[in-house]
Amino acid sequence: MSTVRTVLGDIDPGDLGATYLHEHLIIDHPLVEDRFPHIFLPSAEDATREVRRCREAGVGAMVDAMPCASGRNVSKLAEVSRATGVHVIASTGLHTAKYYAAAPWAFSLSPVALADLFTADIEVGIDRFDYTGPVVDRTPHRAGIVKVATIGDSPSDAERRLFEAAAITHQRTGAPVLTHCEEGRGAVAQVELLAASGVDPSRVVISHTDKVRDLAYHRDLLATGVNVEYDQVLRQTEDTWTLDLIETMASEGRLSQIMAGTDGARRTLWTELGGGPGLAYLIEALQSRLGPEVCRAVLVDNPARLLAF
Hints:
- Helices cover 38% and strands 16% of the residues.
- By secondary structure, it is α/β, with parallel strands linked by helices.
- The strands form 2 sheets. Strands 3-4-5-6-7-8-9-10 form an 8-stranded parallel beta sheet. It has a two-stranded antiparallel sheet with strand order 1-2.
- It is globular, with a radius of gyration of 18 Å.
- The relative contact order is 0.15.
């Protein structure tokens, strides 16, 4: 029986509803506050108000894409989920190296040691201290997806170890894999690296590639059989590139591989923080531009298939 693992427990994939595949509801870390204040999002109350707007617009679930020791706070994610009724899927794994200046273990541990941490997040519960303290105190809130990242066209040795750890975790648990592509680049190399470690591309979703305005790049990527998560719509309120891209790829027979999110890790994007257009804008833009068949595939059917163990 297939199941989706949310922070409040396992649910049937059919109960997800419209799903955002790449969100940042909570980013709560002293390093982020000091070095990247524009993405510092520590408040469960702010997130609850913003997510409630999404719920009212028709959103049923969100994947929070902040992984281990980079600002993840699973207790706050659970609070937001309870308060709004929106299912939240937490991530394990690691983000890019800039988040780990004070955590050298993140890119020095062996792939097996990293996989042990990631597996425990999925099967036991996420650490209340998010691997930032001298002890581990696991909560009942478990992760439902593995996050990995690269920052160049080709992965570094440290990134290769991370991808190997993600592959081990996937093989142990069945959890899907979500990747970060810096500026949208390096996606094909990511797919090749995961596939070489035994991960079926259909169990992987690649983020941010709609930053690259090259249709050949997208065609080559989708030809591998991987899924993509387009997430630049909030930044294109006067530009329809991402919406055009979805329509083009759908018309070429790739609709079953396309999903969407906001990558809303900017205080300036949240209505509740005085910015805009707000996280709810994504579902509104998709519904106003795309037909019901495309919307259902992108927001409901494809995420349910990917997120199911």
